[in-house]
Amino acid sequence: MPDKEREEKRVNGEAAAPAAVTGAETDAEAPAVEESLPEREAAQDLGEAPETLSPEDRVRALEAALSTAEAKAAEYYQQLLRLRADFENLRRRVNKEREEFLHFAGEALVTALLPVLDDFERALQSPGEQVADFLSGVNMIYRRLSEILAREGLEPIPAVGQEFDPSRHEAVAYEAGEDGPRHTVVEEFRRGYMFRGKVIRPALVKVSREKE
């Protein structure tokens, strides 16, 4: 009898096992229904679980989410317009300040040259009886003018005796000679100047070269 009961339990256990497996397989094979991201967000706003919403509630929830997104988009667009307007105002202000700076950039130099202009006027009004005295006054004015321009950054370009430099000298004549170094400036026709290290006018010079 005990053997018979054990046999029945074994048979019943084997028969029940496939049923349990079949149920698990059925659950695994059942497709999971997932709501879309807007629906989940809309359902959270309503305080409801997504799966509990009716189709009408889902539509209303999506419409509410759409209205919220449109409001945010309009707000961002207005912020963009304000930033663009601020940038345009800044650009116009910078351009105006630059134009004013360029317009009045030489004001300090002109102010410094006014005393020199006064000296020239006095010299022309009272030249004196002696030419030497007049020339002395002109030389004094010239030195004063040179000092003012030097303080501003103007400096003459060395020429006579210097090796010819096409970046600072402009050769307008040549002199063939047997003595002395070649390609050397032997005469200056017009002085050249540099302003703060930049050549603003090359010197017009005569350059020595080999005799043909």
Tell me briefly what this model is:
The chain has 212 residues and is an alpha+beta fold. It folds into three domains: 69 residues; 47 residues; 57 residues, Head domain of nucleotide exchange factor GrpE (Nucleotide Exchange Factor Grpe, Chain A, domain 2, Roll).
- Categorize the overall geometry: elongated
Percentage of β-strand residues:
5-15%
**Low-confidence blocks of residues:** 13-35
Number of helices: 5
Cα end-to-end separation:
142 Å
Pairing-aware structural class of the strands and helices? alpha+beta
- Average of pLDDT: 78
Strand order of the largest sheet: 1-4-5
Could you characterize what this model shows?
- Keywords: Chaperone, Coiled coil, Cytoplasm, Stress response.
- Residues 59-100 form a coiled coil.
- It is found in: Cytoplasm.
- The protein has five helices and six strands.
- The strands form two sheets. Strands 1-4-5 form a three-stranded antiparallel β-sheet. Strands 2-6-3 form a three-stranded mixed β-sheet, with no helix packed on it.
- The chain has helices at 2-29, 37-46, 55-103, 107-125, 131-152, and strands spanning 154-156, 169-176, 185-190, 193-195, 198-201, 203-209.
- Residues 13-35 have low confidence and may be disordered.
- It folds into three domains: 36-104; 106-152; 156-212, Nucleotide Exchange Factor Grpe, Chain A, domain 2 (Roll).
- With 212 residues, the protein is α+β, with helices and mostly antiparallel strands.
